[in-house]
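Note to self: user wants both folds in one dump. Writing first protein now.
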Amino acid sequence: MFFIVWLLLIGYAVFLAPGGGTDPIVSSIFSGDLGAIDPLVLAVFNSLGLFPLMFVTLLLLNDRQKWPAWPFALLSFGVGAFSLLPYFAFGSRQVDKKLRTPTWLVRFLGSRFWLIALMLFWVINTLTLLQGFSLAAYQDAFFASGLVSVMTVDWFVLWGLSIYTVYRFYPGAKRKSLAWIPILGPVLVLFLNKKATQ
């Protein structure tokens, strides 16, 4: 299933996403004219930096699978779900391995300090929306910008992967339904089930 989603995501990015000409959102980002970008577009763009932080936390706290998780988790900072889907498709099969993540890093990633920091990052990004946003403007950007189009699809795939990851690695966790809240939810599950992260 993950392999099929990966192929569909690549197919969408290459063949279906808007392209050609100058991407207006990319131009605004590189020129520093962030005021020209709808706050919802900015919030989604920024969240693609928060999802990898969350996946680094989830995957490294449970890195006992067939393939090491850290290369895929780190690559997700640049290419999002494009790097994580192959891991989930082929490398995340449960094997009898010792946790690869160093003890000091496990302690840090499972610490209240780090989990609260992730929550604060989410809150700060969400405050972007208080500037006022327009779904119509987002729709226009989606069809005009290849970046917005691909990152939107990528966002939904990352959201689904985060829910799957929580339910897979923490099946007995309290309030694991919170994982359905994008980014914040999985972090809350870890925070409320701190002993499970150690």
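First done. Writing the second protein, which came from a different request thread.
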Amino acid sequence: MTSKHSAIITCAITGSIHTPSMSPYLPISEEQIIEQAVAAAEAGAAILHLHVRNPDTGEPSSDPELFERVAKTVSARTDAILSITTGGSAKMSVEERLKGPTRIGPELCSLNLGTMNFALHPMADKPREWKHDWEKPFLMSTKGGFFKNTFNDMEQIIKDLGDRHGTRFEFEAYDVGHLYSLAHLTERGMVTGKVFVQFVMGILGGIGADHTSLVLMKETATRLFGDNIEWSVLPGGKAQMPLCTMAAIMGGNIRVGLEDNLWLGPGQLAKNNAEQVEKITRILSELNIPIASPAEARRRLCLRGSK
């Protein structure tokens, strides 16, 4: 099997979806995020997708100094690619969301491909003891709110990071229409070269996490971009391992991590991000699907390398 068939594994370490009360293993502090990121890279993740949080409350943070410290320390301890979020959380403005990435100027950043209902409120209905006062209102606010990323916002992100820093993007498509938005950006020359698209599946407000939707996303992306694409799948919740396995068999790449799913299996919380990376690498090993190294991922995604 040639190297082009190997699977690039991304691990999303903490995100802004889950709250501290949902799992004692969700990394919150600077040290926890760093240690779990390094362990995930050692387990086989070529890309580490990074958010940061307020270490006292666990709230999503846009603190550029915190981003910079985390990124520098992780980069010093591993050669994994860092993909810094430009999504932050739905409560942040675009300017807030860009504070960390523009401070770092990374080789890769995520970029959400549209404004959408990003509904987390069903998580607030589950009985649990809340550790912090902000958690339940934060989740409930998504019932009447939305995540804003207009074409103006996307163009601003591309200019501030792509044009000024040479950053390339992990384009996050939450539905089929987002693929057409990306095609529009390429037709206008805003996005050039090979595109790296992450199919985000299972967020309420976006496409569902099921096999027919994955096939639809893949076929649509192939029709729009041909061979000029690296695609990956990010299934939320219990669909994570089955759809990641399916994607790898189909010739795609995969994303795991506690941002997307807190569980390792039914009734079993993942104790860290590395456990999920280790599980999917075991599955792919049994299927004789190689795992891409950071060097191979950089080559295939046309990245400039870390500064």
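Dump finished. Worth passing along: The radius of gyration is 18 Å.
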